[in-house]
């Protein structure tokens, strides 16, 4: 795509931004990540996640942290009903981690940040491009002129001072509430799906032996009338994967009408602030969580009830989705990637996987192994089919039978018609 080193700005320093930053610097280009969060240290981001097939491909290619495993494996997905009767058992080789473990591993690879997760990070090679992880920078605008190129303007969140940069390439990896996506498509909405997720982690050592046996080597999907729960084991503090030191991750999908008092109360934190998307760890009102635990105690089977009871710092998210009509702009000089391009409902655990796919495809584009049209086709096809698939899975447990049939039909038709042309 280019003969010399590019100057690249990545908007967003979370997982998608870091993966792209690592890949770009390894190609010898110069990378500046603009991250709105005021520090490099992240607190309270221990939620479980799966890296996915493309996430593993990315790590195999670009991860230079070799001395510390970062995931817990599970061999099966076990689906059970309200009375724990087995309804489905699938062989699925999961690699499960949590946000902080993956974040600090990527930071170690990007800018050699040392942490309790990676004590001795790898150093950059002479062939790597220059890098900067620039915290406390809120992007305010982006523009493009054929003659003068790109301009991106950011504001320091503490001082209010504005800075304009003129990179060769912009990667918009600024997540579900993407500023860049809003600038490009101000009328594009992220509609509420009709349900919340309650999430929390529990130290493995506090769980009974019977419940741990129930979880052993499995991800569990437990469903009742109008809600369902996913639960699995993830790394513990500082990424520890030693049995007994790990955590149990629980995600509870719960129907809740947006117009209801229940929704308003759930999305209002202990300081009286109502959140649009997520009430974070430590901010959920105790009385609200106590009500959810009371519901669990009268509805769920013993192992599920035990785990819900032992979550002391939950967080709650209002589930939504959206998809940008396009992924590249300004003659292939600005790209929406990850959740900034397409936000999926979390049932399919494809958020990180999608980000890694975008990264691997962009790498081929930058190396001249893929043209822009082929990149756009692959990216948009994956986004479209996965968005519909995530709606299908959610509707199976949370919508009416008619709603499920509708979403299932749309999803299956889309996946039947897809054609993958790029080998990664």
UniProtKB/TrEMBL annotation:
One of its GO terms (molecular function) is FAD binding. Signal peptide: none annotated. InterPro entries: DHP_3-monooxygenase, DhpH_subs-bd, FAD-bd, FAD/NAD-bd_sf. Gene3D superfamilies: 3.30.9.60, FAD/NAD(P)-binding domain. It comes from the Eukaryota. Transmembrane segments: none annotated. Keywords: FAD, Flavoprotein, Oxidoreductase. This is Uncharacterized protein.
